[in-house]
Design brief:
Oligomer: single chain
Strand content: 5-15%
Largest sheet: 2 strands, antiparallel
Length: about 130
């Protein structure tokens, strides 16, 4: 299931097995439209699986996935930003998250826990700007 969603979102190239790679970037409107279509097809497949299965816990999990995709759809598929650099118009596509970015955040959390002995990184995040010149 996760692999199907990962393929639909287009976050990693197809030949990667462990997911820890540089994220595939969306650079055109056609790519963004293809990803939206793939995710819509994925949600349709999930709805069909919900109808065809008798396992209530599995149906509940599928519904949670559909709800999360619906809830975060605007963030996942936000329109590209248009900026002007030196009088030249450029279109910037907003990147979605991937495993490498999440892995860096996990390392930061681990580092903060090692220093302070607690699970909160709020204090570190608030003090970072003070540490820089």
């Amino acid at each position: 299931m996760f692999s199907q969603l990962r393929d639909a979102l287009g976050t990693v190239p197809r030949n990667v097995n462990n997911g820890l790679c540089q994220m595939k970037e969306t650079g055109t409107h056609a790519e963004l439209k293809a990803i939206k279509t793939a995710v819509a097809n994925f949600k349709t497949d999930l709805r069909e699986k919900i109808k065809n299965t008798d396992d209530k816990s599995l149906c509940k999990s599928f519904k949670k996935i559909i709800d999360k995709l619906k809830e975060n759809g605007k963030r996942l598929f936000s329109d590209p930003m248009t900026v002007y650099v030196n009088g030249e118009k450029r279109i910037i596509f907003i990147l979605r998250t991937n495993n490498i970015l999440e892995q860096h955040f996990r390392r930061f959390n681990y580092w903060c826990r090692r220093i302070h002995g607690n699970h909160s990184v709020r204090r570190n995040l608030e003090n970072i700007p003070e540490q820089f010149p």
